[in-house]
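During the no-cost extension, the postdoctoral fellow (Dr. R.K.) reprocessed legacy sequence entries with the updated structure-token encoder. One reprocessed record is reproduced below for audit purposes.
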Amino acid sequence: MDERRYPRWPLVGVGALILNRGRVLLAQRGKEPMKGWWSVPGGALETGESLADAVRREVREETGLEVRPVRVLEIFERIVRDERGAAEYHYVLIDYLCRIAGGELCAGSDASRVAWVRESELKDYQITDGTLAVIERAFRKRRDQIHDRGTETRRRA
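Re-encoded structure tokens follow.
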């Protein structure tokens, strides 16, 4: 029995936004909920596990990469309702910006595939609206940081 279905209380999940050379790392879900959909690597927090440890574990399990969580980018919730309108799944999701610290990219455990995807290619992937919005926000923040660094460099010159 899937304990995540029809939970008594919302479950806490973590996600990793890993940006590298103008691309984001996506994992195609190999299990329900949302089997076949693409998302950022992540999953449920285990009892006794810190949020940062959960991010590291989930990324390692799904992608083979070791990451360093840098900071929280977004906190949001995902409620998936069944045909009667009951909350079949309810997650509070905490997405972290992460940096790669090692490992070798390969799909594992809950992911059927992993891919580096350019922002312009996101439309070609089946991604939930909430996840897509977070990914786009991460790209915007990255562009703003690059712009701000360039402006600061020009001021000093």
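The chain has a mean pLDDT of 91. The helical segments are 51-63, 129-156. The remaining legacy entries will be reprocessed before the final report is submitted.
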